[in-house]
Amino acid sequence: MGYGQPPTDDGRSSPAIYFLVLFGRDGGLVGPEPESQATPLKPLYTLGHSNLEFSEFIKLLKDFRVELLADVRSLPQSSRFPQFSQPGFEKMLEDEGISYLFLGEELGGRPDDVDAYRRDGLVDYRARRKSYAFGAGLERLLRELERRSVGMMCAEEDPLECHRFLMICPEFVPLGIKPLHIRKGSQIETQEAAENRLLEATGFAGVAANTLFPLARLEALEDAYKMQSEKAAHRVSPLAIDRW
To answer: What is the Cα–Cα distance from 193 to 181, expressed in whole angstroms?
Structure first.
């Protein structure tokens, strides 16, 4: 099912080596470095804090040896679960030996940029990916992955319900970086397994595990991302767009 356990001391469950890419001044992808000059990257995990107690959340991070938590919430606050609110959240992480980096302005799902919204008020993930801010956030994550493992955090436990999977992760896959999604109980859902689950949920089960026709899977996956984003993306009043 694409789920796994935390990495073992001998490294048997460690992710493969990934390669750094370069970005142009406009935030667009230029291309990979030559293989001989490639920089090996650390693992990239994603997770949602959901309704966990802080101790439970920390256990997830430590089970997978996450060294840096990258917060991709647009607002690093939670009225329902204040243990995940700034500024206290960062201090609690530091006390556990885990660094904190806020990237909500660059990679958050509720951007403060009118160009990221459709006329009907829905965040357009494709448009947001083309922005300079998004490119800068992605580049920052890549730089961090050169030296330490990263956990990219938002609120939703299920990646399929969160912009971290629907908006951010698709940009990593073409670079050879396959995020690993930490689920409840310290289980791992691979990026491919999450994609297959998305395909099944949006009516494309027939190509979910299609290895004979990979192009058909990629085309269906693009449609599936779009369909799921219609359900999960942040929406504001169209009137707010007009007044922006």
So the answer is: 10
